[in-house]
Amino acid sequence: MKKTISYLHAKKHNRQKISVLTSYDYPTTKILEEVGVDMIILGDSVGTNMLGYQDETEVTLEDMIHHTKAVCRAIENIFLVTDLPYNTYQTPGMAVENARKITAAGADAVKFEGGRIDILQALKSEGILVMCHLGLNPQHDQDRMRSGKISKGKQFSEAIELIQAAKNLESAGADLLILEKIPGKLAKIITGNVNIPTIGIGAGKDCDGQVLIIHDLLGLNDKKYKHAPRYFDMKSMVKDVIGRYQDEVAEGIFPALEHTNIIKESELSLVQAWCMEHEMDI
C-alpha cells in the first residue's frame, strides 16, 4: 500500500511513531522498502554523503532530480520527500518552478528550510505537498555548524520564535515539519501544539517521527554525532571484505574454477589449432 500524506497524519493522530531515513540510490531504497520504512527524505545531505561536496550549498537542482529518479525506481510504498536545494527557492515563482521539476521526477513532497510563508503559500497554491524545516538549517547555517554551535532554541527568544514559526507554517498549509537540533522539551511543546506530523533529528523522542542519515546509522561516516547512534560498523566490514578480495586477486586465488566460463574441449582444440596456424601463443 502506497503511504500517503493522510497515512502519515493518521499515524500522528493515533500516536504511532513514523520511521524515516535518508536514501539517495536505488539499492538502498529497495532495502528500505523491504523493511517497511514509512518515509524517505532525500536531503541535500546527498552532497556530503554521496557526491563528495564540502557542504550542502554545493548541491544543485540537477543533483536532486537525478537522485530522486533513482530512488523512485525502487519505491512502491514509501512516501518520498525531496529537498529544494540551496538557492532554488529565493522567490515564490522560483520555488514553484523548481518544485514542479522535483515532483515530476517522482517525489511526493518537497522540503525547504526556514519559515517563509510566501514560499509555502505559493507551493500549496499549486497543489504541492510541503515539508517545512525548522531549527538548524544546514543550507543557511554553515558558519554556525563550522563553529560547533549547531543547536537552536536553547534561549527563550529563539525558542518562542520556533514555536511561533511552527504554528504559522501549519496555518499556512504545511503538511509536515522537520525539527532539527532543538531541545527535546521544546520539540515536545511544538509537536503537541501542531496538528501536522513532526519529524525530529536531534530533537528528542517526543516528535511524531524520527529521521537519521542512513550513512550515520550504518557507521559509514568517520564523524560521529550525538544524535546519531551507530547501529552497525559497516565501514569496517566493507573494508575487510574488499581487503580479502584484493588479497585473493593478488595471490591468484580469485577467480576460481567455479567463477570461470567454460569452453568445450572440442571447441578449444579448434581455437588452439587456429592460433598455431597464425603463429600465436596458446
Describe this structure as you would to a colleague:
Helix 6 links the parallel strand 4 and strand 5. The mean pLDDT is 95. This protein has two domains: 213 residues, TIM Barrel (Alpha-Beta Barrel); 41 residues, no CATH class. The longest helix has 17 residues. The termini are far apart. The protein has twelve helices and eight strands. The chain is 43% helix and 13% strand. With 282 residues, it is α/β, with parallel strands linked by helices. Strands 1-2-3-4-5-6-7-8 form an eight-stranded parallel beta barrel, surrounded by six helices. Helix 5 crosses helix 6. Homodecamer; pentamer of dimers. Belongs to the PanB family. GO terms for molecular function: 3-methyl-2-oxobutanoate hydroxymethyltransferase activity; magnesium ion binding; methyltransferase activity. Its EC number is 2.1.2.11. Pathway: Cofactor biosynthesis; (R)-pantothenate biosynthesis; (R)-pantoate from 3-methyl-2-oxobutanoate: step 1/2.
